[in-house]
Amino acid sequence: MSSKVRNISYAMPIVLIGASGLILISRGMHNSWGLFLIPLTDHLNVGREIYSIGISLNVLFSGLGAPLFGALADKYGPGKSILLGVILQIISQYWLSNVSNSFDLIGSLLLGGFAAAGFIGIAMAAVGRSVKPENRSLFVGLVMASGGLGQFLITPLMSGIIQNSGWLTAVYILMFFSSLLLIFSYLISFSKDAQSDSNTVKQTVSDAFKEAMGNKNFNLLTLGFFVCGFHVTFIGSHFPAYLQDQGLGSIAGWSLGLLGLFNVFGTTMYGYLGDRMSKKNLLVSIYTFRSLIFLIFIFMPKNEFTVMVFAGILGLLWLSTVPLTSGVISDIFGPSFTSMLFGITLFSHNLGSALGSWLGGRIFDQYQSYDVMWIACVVLGLLAALLHFPIKGTAIQRINLNPATN
Fold first, then answer.
1. pTM value?
2. 2-23 confidence digits (pLDDT tens)
3. Euclidean distance between CA atoms 153 and 150, whole angstroms
4. What is the spatial distance between Cα 119 and Cα 24, in angstroms, rounded to a whole number?
5. Hey, what CATH class is 9-192+203-388 in?
6. 57 with 111: CB under 8 angstroms?
């Protein structure tokens, strides 16, 4: 597609629709995986740790693939990169529908994670390059909020399908949802090229990578994002099973759905504030509030009301870190390699996700309780707040850089 077409007046809303649809469906599906834990482990007659390993590898390979898919998007365009991921995701879901042993379970989840690796980072970068810089955090927040809406709509739906028609039918529905992503990959292709901004200093992929790795603020941001991954994947993977252990399995899907609904408001709010306040201070507040909420929940009586209140409040902070983290990266390094650099940060996020998923299953199988995991969420949240506190989000000053192309 020519640059002339990309810059026409309707390109921006097309990109917003494409990115929102991509995030809505992909996050809705991703946050449904916890609902499959008990049905699939019962089907294969294995412990929860096996499924937790599968989810851990899912998010780990999603992190490993994020910089790769991001670099492909920066070089060849976001539409083509997402298209590749969607095809691989459909293959992974077909594999899961034919699962017969632990290898099939772990392998299909691993491939699915790698396939979805670039979805968030590419969508965020495409939106960031298609809107005015002064409104970037707001629009990125709005698009990311669609992920909460997807969780609200898709997670309860998947819960009902699993309960009434079984997990296999639910996997077929996931394949249908994945096929819809082909449409949104085309719409995202209308975004500006990564290197199309004439005011941006030209770099190679290697230059951008070395520059980021040597930047203290980027490293702190990346370390802090590890904790976000630990939180959201532990909750997403194990909260439904935790509720079932508490005799509240009937509200598992709705609690995740409510979490997603409130995430719509939280992500939009923090995206709006990110254009007007210090993004790193907002990140400090998010991680601090998460720790307080986890601490309170530990001592709360567990019933339908308290669980739904917990889910709603946590939802305000759920994916609110994403537009702010992406925004800090863009503020420091500019828009040219945002997909790749956010992908690197996302790798750290997914390392935390892998640990949160696996450790949750490991600890439960050993102690028949998630208490240690809840305490770990409190401690790590406070640590993340401390890591973000010294970050400076000012633009890096580049000197003596020779223009280069990839």
1. 0.75
2. 444 444 457 788 989 999 999 9
3. 5
4. 11
5. mainly alpha
6. no
